[in-house]
Amino acid sequence: MPLVVPALRLFMVFVNVYDTYKTLKIPPGRKGGLPSIRAMTQRKRDLKGCLAVWVVWCCLAAYERTFDRFVSFIVPFYSEIKSVMLLFLLLTRAKGAEPLYLHILRPLIKPYVDTLDPLLDLARDIGDFLFALSQVPLNYVLS
């Protein structure tokens, strides 16, 4: 069973990337013209589904990095439960991820948006500064 979860995780990433690629392409129009309103509405709906899948996937990945080893000691059959959860997300795609996002993740995050936004902006600015600093040649600084 230890090989099933990484294989499912890898397959899910590839499926997510491919679905996002297909969704981001603008639908073709009739006779080379603009796409219909119906096609653009469907594209918008598909984009919302892709975004929900990626948000749920990123939250799952962050959860696994921080709590996975601790929870696996406490919960029996944890690897099997996680495999079923990944299969559920893989088979239902956006239809399974959207309710998880709308009813679980969004209510958890919404009260902290005013606090998280400045912190994430600060983290991005620090990361940009460190990246710019890493671009300075080392022998220029030492001389």
Automatic annotation (TrEMBL):
InterPro entries: TB2_DP1_HVA22 (IPR004345). The keyword Transferase does not apply. Keywords: Membrane, Transmembrane, Transmembrane helix. It comes from the Eukaryota. GO terms for cellular component: membrane. The keyword Transcription does not apply. It is a multi-pass membrane protein. It is found in: Membrane. Belongs to the DP1 family. This is Protein YOP1.
